[in-house]
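Support case: user asked for a sample of complex input and structure output to validate their parser. Sending the pair below.
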Amino acid sequence: MSHEHPGYAEDKAAVLKRLARIEGQVRGINRMVEADTYCIDVLTQISATTKALEAVALKLLDEHLAHCVADAAAKGGPEADQKIKEASDAIARLVRS
Amino acid sequence: MSHEHPGYAEDKAAVLKRLARIEGQVRGINRMVEADTYCIDVLTQISATTKALEAVALKLLDEHLAHCVADAAAKGGPEADQKIKEASDAIARLVRS
Amino acid sequence: MSHEHPGYAEDKAAVLKRLARIEGQVRGINRMVEADTYCIDVLTQISATTKALEAVALKLLDEHLAHCVADAAAKGGPEADQKIKEASDAIARLVRS
Amino acid sequence: MSHEHPGYAEDKAAVLKRLARIEGQVRGINRMVEADTYCIDVLTQISATTKALEAVALKLLDEHLAHCVADAAAKGGPEADQKIKEASDAIARLVRS
């Protein structure tokens, strides 16, 4: 974990790949409902998709803490406080969603 | 709430519409990451999408309890027990996802 | 799973035991904060306690679906619809909490 | 938000008060089950208690990010990376619990 965003390019590609897969999962759920698939099977697929989205959010949050928040904290001052407040609010939204 | 699935057609159309919107939200998140949108804004969008997926799951579960589970319970026997077990397991997956 | 609440006595004893343990966990968290325990360790303990509470809720919900809701559904009529609506609302609260 | 823990004393007192209230809520749930209170009412109380515990966790996490993590990030080096990794893991546990 460095603060110069090395390898951000790979991370970004990996995140985009995961999001493309999630988009496909949602499309699959749509097709399942369209085809009157048994409700419990649709719910299983929705739970898996929600977990996959949460995992992407946690990944982005990790990056954000390790880069933006850490850089701002290293500089200190009001911007540091604001970045931390902002991250806390985003975490609260994730925990509650 | 009746057990003969009245208006199921409308419900299905509404669920499909919601899923199409969620698919669009996921595509939007992909574009945000692609365009290096500020991480906190991406997280806000992911939280909203997760909540929307959960709402669809709760809607499908309501229908399932009101129709399949209620019908099976009305008939009784091992099938009723199995339907209830299955619903409980799906609820546990939702609560934990 | 029967609808005459057999073994409800044992289940109740088990649920009470789990709740007593959770009460002890919360008391332990209080002591940790009192003693200025490292924040991350307190958070780990809170996550474990939240999971334990959720597990009790899922257990009670299972029982409720298998007994109250199944009985009401077997009888049918408006009471059945109301029990199912009530269970759906409780599930939504759990998923969102 | 400063990094010298001003007013930490008040925050600690407030957190301890909230935890004492949560302990009372869990004891109340125990009494409800003991008295065979209607299951749905017990579930409502459990959801409220889970939310209260989560709110304490988010409060502690805010403090932790604003003090420990910010201080470590300001100093930099491997300790900063480790504190951020540790916080990310705690956040993941909270989101999943």
